[in-house]
Amino acid sequence: MTSPRVSVRNLTKIYKTKRGSHVALDNVSLDIDAGEFVVLLGPSGCGKTTLLRCIAGLEEPDAGEIIIDGKLVFSSEKGVYVPPERRDLSMVFQSYALWPHLSVLDNVVYPLRNTGKSSADASVLAKEALAKVGLGDYSARFPGQLSGGQQQRVALARAIVSGDGLILFDEPLSNLDAKVRERLRLELLSLQSQINFSAVYVTHDQIEALALADRIAVMDVGRIAQVGSPEQIYDYPNSRYVADFIGSANEFAGTVKSVGDVLTVETAIGELEVGNFHSDLVAGQPVWLVVRPEHCSFDGVGEGYNRFSGTLVRTLYLGASRQHFVETAAGELVVTTQTPIAVGEKEPVTIGCAPQRIHAFPREV
Amino acid sequence: MSAAAGASTANRSRVSRLKLTPFSTVLWLLLLAIVVLVVYPLGIAIVYEFENIVKSFGEITNGPLSRTVPTVLWNTAIVVFGATFFALLVGSILAWVNERSDASLGFIGQLLPLCALIVPPIAGVIGWAVLLDPRAGLLNFPLRQFLELFGITSRVGPFNIYTMTGLVLITGLYTVPYVFLVVSAALQRVDPAMEEASRTSRAGPLKTMMRVTLPAIKPAFAAAILLGFISGVSLFSVPAVLGGGARIDVISVFIFRLLQAYPAQTGPAITLSIGLLVMVQIMLLLQNLIAQPGRNAAISGKGFRHTPVRLGKLRWLAYALAVLYLFATSVLPILGLLLVSLQPFWTPAVNFATLTLANFNFVLFENRQTVSALINSLTLGFIVASFNMLVTGAIALHFNRNGVARRIADIFTALPATIPHTVIGVAFILAFSREPIRIYGTTTILLLAYIVMTISYAARASASAAASIGTELAEASRVSKASDLRTLWKISLPLAMPGLVAGWIMVFVHTVGEVTASAFLSGTHNPVIGRVLLDLWNFGNFPQVAALALIITAISTTLVGIMLFITRRGQRTATS
Ligand SMILES: Nc1ncnc2c1ncn2[C@@H]1O[C@H](COP(=O)(O)OP(=O)(O)OP(=O)(O)O)[C@@H](O)[C@H]1O
Ligand SMILES: [Mg+2]
């Protein structure tokens, strides 16, 4: 069995401020395998940056352990703390963090010189790295003379040049406009398949997360809510929080009527059959039902589908798809379709959705 | 593993803890020495002079001083209030014009806050004295000739600088930059959307200013007033030059006279110094209360661009005011000094045939006192600026910005700024003229006093130089496998260099132009420019005074020019 490149065990980080202490990470554990691209996804302030900085050594956690390539770099119990310069990793910052007084080449050479490479070797390697990110001709320029996208490429070159094979990214694309962001996203992926580095990538853009990740770790305030492949996270969220955070979701309250192969749930729009549920649900328990807009439909109502009626309130045309707002007894519901529908606004509609597309999560009352 | 763990403990301080490395130990020791330099003289002076202090209460309340002290306090109050009022008026109008109107002052706006650096106040006030001396004033003389055309003849006037009005106005001139800076900063932070919302709610520009802008920056006004008070009560050079002729004593000069009297009246001097110190501390406390963040919730902290208010014809008035101010603080006094310095002796009727450079020659090469004063002041300026910038620069760059170590260091370095120079002068005299540390009359005492007096400037300059770098650049260096000290050397220091050089120049210029502590601590054995200027003035060697004042003005102006050049270039590279 190969051991993971990075192993984070029970990490806790508490910030002490004037107004008291704030638990930024609460007992977080996460493994990153060799060549794996792990995305940390979560709302603002949930502790993504903090986790990344703890791995980098820029922040000292209060409890737990971090192991990088089998080497213990932090342990609260053993009193081990290895400073950032002696951890074999590199980092790409949201603000690029290029040094304005050094040329592009010198920026990329810098990490190599710090590890004792001769200046000739370092220069050759740095030029290779710059060529890989498509900036071979820019080595004599200064960061101030580059566009945002080019600056972030330099930062990328600086991160891959040392060849550690572990790169931490903190929202590297969020300062760029949408087109550049998409292109860099693709380049990042092809770079990763070329040199096969492991990545921990922080973002709060779910599209970016789904596109880049081998695995996504969805974070809630200070803890990891779910880890899994993009498909697992999207199709099989393990909590209402994750379902809500990734994509959009219709939610309605109900009460479990009976538990069998499928769950039968009593709701304001009638009895619904639910295919996704945790086995410890019992009859009589209040639940939230969650279903994604694109998993509901007006026409393709197949065998065994749940069916309920409502009134079409409004349709928004979004280019690639259409978003329909339907008033039902359980509140407003959104349905997304690829093709136009034959129903006009204010007219009654019937909605169908497959039981295996509906998720049930316990509801506190 | 254990080797890595052992070596790593040394680096912990960087991240969160207050652990000592050899480098930080040195920094702490230096800081401690500076704190001792503030606390020790004051403490010793109070301990040794305790009986005299107690006795002086009697002298002040119903003894020989009971007549003079109230007058002195009253004079001080008039000067301080008058000067602050003048500065508030001129400074905030200029700030508003610069920040909000289409008469943006551009380069002049940048120069305004630097006036007191470009022309040291001591040179400025001497310049005004030679312009508006009632008899020999270089401006008064042509004015009298002009008035004679209308049949008005007089041997004196029409203006007399040696009056309360003169004292107030000249003090006010040098208080304007404080107000300008504080009000400008506040205006920059007011969200223009607030003002635009008022304009779209049908309020005109004037109403908007009165109802929206001014209330939003009220705390800044309060802070500016207090700053004006603090600088006013501590200002020494202006009353020292003008007060003699006007027979008006203010507190800082009065304390000086008490110590110069024979026998020296140390008791009242230190009692009044402590009073001064307490007053300043109270004002600082008030200012901190007012400057509480969150008190001005309307201010949103981003740098916005405003649609400027159209001034129309008034624009020229605004320009005129700004130019007039620059003339009053720099151009006119320099011209006055120049004319006097080129004359064999000071006469108001300038005979251009007799103009000579002899005074410069004499001051620069022949007069032992001025030559050694120049050498001493420049050497001291160099040492003080280098030492202070080195220490504060290392602190600002080495200690993590939000760390405990940095906060403690900030408190230490900010402490001396809260003590008026007069008080430092008095405490140093009393503490260092006796065993165990007997250094009164040496250049060492001046060196120590200057270090204490300018460390806060240096710390502020270093902090802003360090803050302009941003933490991520240093962090990027750490994850690029550079150690702590290597990051400091390769990344932080080069990036902070322009700011540090600017700070160096500021400290140097302040030291060379310093008058207060120089008057107290310098003498024939350790002359410095500030003291020698006052002496020459009091002995009536006016052409030499003018020449010496011009020389330090030239040095200051050149250095400030270099500083502007460096900081502007720094801004360009940062934003391009
Ligand atoms: N130096 C600090 N001192 C005190 N609290 C901090 C500090 N840094 C972060 N925090 C707090 O810790 C929490 C987590 O912060 P963190 O920067 O990790 O969030 P994030 O998930 O990266 O958010 P974002 O998406 O906005 O970047 C936040 O509530 C933040 O306020
Ligand atoms: Mg973040």
TrEMBL record, chain A:
User: Which branch of life, at top level?
Assistant: Bacteria
Q: What membrane topology does this protein have?
A: Peripheral membrane protein
Q: Which coarse location class applies to the principal site listed for this UniProt protein? A: membrane
Q: Which SUPFAM superfamilies match?
A: MOP-like, P-loop containing nucleoside triphosphate hydrolases
Q: Where in the cell is it found?
A: Cell inner membrane
The record's listing under SMART domains reads: AAA
Q: Which residues form the ABC transporter domain?
A: 6-246
Q: Which GO terms describe its molecular function?
A: ABC-type transporter activity; ATP binding; ATP hydrolysis activity
Q: Name one GO cellular component term.
A: ATP-binding cassette (ABC) transporter complex
Q: Any keyword Iron-sulfur?
A: no
Give UniProt keywords alphabetically: ATP-binding, Cell inner membrane, Cell membrane, Membrane, Nucleotide-binding, Translocase, Transport
Write down what this protein is called: Fe3+/spermidine/putrescine ABC transporter ATP-binding protein
Q: Give the originating organism.
A: Nitratireductor aestuarii
- Top-level taxonomy: Bacteria, Pseudomonadati, Pseudomonadota, Alphaproteobacteria, Hyphomicrobiales
The gene for this chain is sfuC
From TrEMBL, chain B:
Q: Which residues form the ABC transmembrane type-1 domain?
A: 73-287, 374-563
Keywords (alphabetical) are: Cell inner membrane, Cell membrane, Membrane, Transmembrane, Transmembrane helix, Transport
Q: Which domain of life is it from?
A: Bacteria
Has keyword Membrane?
yes
| Matches recorded under Pfam families | BPD_transp_1
- Name one cellular component (GO) term: plasma membrane
- GO:BP terms for this protein? transmembrane transport
User: For this UniProt entry, which segments traverse the membrane?
Assistant: 26-48, 72-97, 109-131, 161-187, 268-286, 316-338, 377-399, 411-433, 439-459, 491-512, 545-566
Name where it mostly resides.
Answer: membrane
Localization in the cell: Cell inner membrane; Cell membrane
The record describes its membrane topology as: Multi-pass membrane protein
The entry assigns this protein to a family as follows: Belongs to the binding-protein-dependent transport system permease family.
What's the name of the protein? Answer: Iron ABC transporter permease
Species the sequence originates in = Nitratireductor aestuarii
